Amino acid sequence: MKLCDRVKKFSDENRLFDRVKNIIVGVSGGVDSMSLLHILKCLSTVYGFILHVAHLNHLLRGELANRDENLVEQFCKDNNIDFHVRRINIREFAEKEDLSLEMAGRKARYNFFHEISLKLPNSVIATGHTLDDHIETVLLRFFKGTGIEGLRGIPIKEGNIIRPIRFVRKYELYRYARENKIPFNEDHTNYLEIYQRNIIRHVIIPRIIKDLNPNVVTSINNVSQIADEFCDYVNNTIDVNRIGDLIASRKMDSVEVNIKTFKNLHPFLGKIVLRRILLEFGLNASKISFDKINKTYNLIVNDNVGKRLDIGEGIRIYIDRERFCIKKQKIDSWECIAISVNSTVENEYFIFKSELINKNSIKFERENLNVEFIDYDKVIGDLKLRKWKRGDKIKPLGMNGHKKVSDIYVDKKVPFWKKDMIPLLVDSKNIIWVCGLVLSEDYKIDDKTKNVLKVEYYEK
């Protein structure tokens, strides 16, 4: 069977072209992407989709990079294919994004591809990854200590990204290009053994084929397929939100998990829960290593109360007695806020309202600790909201003596990661209200009260 027919069969089996009107083909000028472009051009008459080529010039190899750009552009002109090009200094981009050159190049390319895709209806992005690329990726991850997810390798379909030649061996593309007189350029860096992938490609795999298993590519591909099917089943079967009372609280920037329920899960399931939540928070899958998940899991189940763990990309895990919290860190922009009467204050953590009201309009709600009423005439100086400090004390309603705010947090089971988010309402001398928790005895309403300040606090 001809290669074009095999690609058609593979694409139909994996439904790569379903309802597709536009395909953005990422083309570097190498044999893989140039062959893919030629194959898709042949198949476009069958499926009726329109091709658009995207080429990113990394500005890393001087004239060689310009040579690649010119080759791709000329091929598109000769074949009446829409051509898009972007030039970007990848070294500067990598430094700015704090990425390796390889990861920076990948991010810049896909950003470019997606920008074009957004402008075209019913579009997908096609890349020229081969079976060799897939096998190398699996081995590279295996040697670095991946979990089952990592053994899936390069997916055939990922969102609106498709890889129609992921089943094709690289040597087949050289033959196809030669037979069809397809121009392409060789990147000499693909042969330098200073790169990890090249060591796997040119040293490890050939040695395994020679001395251990001539069918190693098929064997690794089979293992990868098993891992892919297993992970697909698990991801579609396990719903984190339906595991009893596992999820105690979920917000835009945080998830709180009941430790007791988490501990009762099988370790395998517990680690899946961790990984799933981290992915939901936008952590790059490549950053969620097997070791990182194992370390985090063990810290949680072994009662490391008060422990904080930075996962990366602004995500931190806090472990308390009853819950652990996975939280996306915000830029902490508040320390002290001046409060005016009859006003509303809002920041990333809370909403605070104050209003002078008639004493006769007071309606006490015993269960609602988010609303309190203060004798305004007892306030000394200006009102402010501030964070708690070690040694802070308040005289709780109904008590004669003072109590440390830190002890109130313990009594009320406030997780330690929330302490800086809960404001204290203070005047120039005292703490009036630990918002949402405890009001001061010194500021309560009594028979002599004339002016009442209603205060409300709502956690975001």
List the keywords.
13 helices, alpha+beta, Uridine Diphospho-n-acetylenolpyruvylglucosamine Reductase, domain 3, 3 domains, Phenylalanyl-tRNA Synthetase, Chain B, domain 3, six-stranded mixed beta sheet, 460 residues, single chain, 37% helix, 22 strands, five-stranded antiparallel beta sheet, Rossmann fold
Any overview of this molecule?
The chain has 460 residues and is of the alpha+beta class. It has three domains: 3-232, Rossmann fold (3-Layer(aba) Sandwich); 240-328, Uridine Diphospho-n-acetylenolpyruvylglucosamine Reductase, domain 3, CATH 3.30.465.60; 336-459, 3-Layer(bba) Sandwich (Phenylalanyl-tRNA Synthetase, Chain B, domain 3), CATH 3.50.40.10. Helix content is 37%, strand content 21%. It contains 13 helices and 22 strands. The chain has helices at 3-13, 31-47, 63-78, 90-97, 101-118, 131-144, 170-179, 196-211, 216-237, 259-264, 267-280, 290-301, 405-411; strands spanning 22-26, 50-57, 82-87, 123-126, 157-158, 161-162, 247-250, 254-258, 308-312, 315-319, 323-328, 336-339, 343-346, 350-357, 371-375, 383-386, 393-394, 403-404, 424-426, 431-434, 438-439, 452-459. It has a six-stranded mixed β-sheet, with helices on both faces. The chain has a five-stranded antiparallel β-sheet with strand order 7-8-11-10-9. Helix 4 packs across helix 5 (101-118). It is elongated and about 100 Å long. It starts with a helix and ends with a strand. The mean pLDDT is 93.
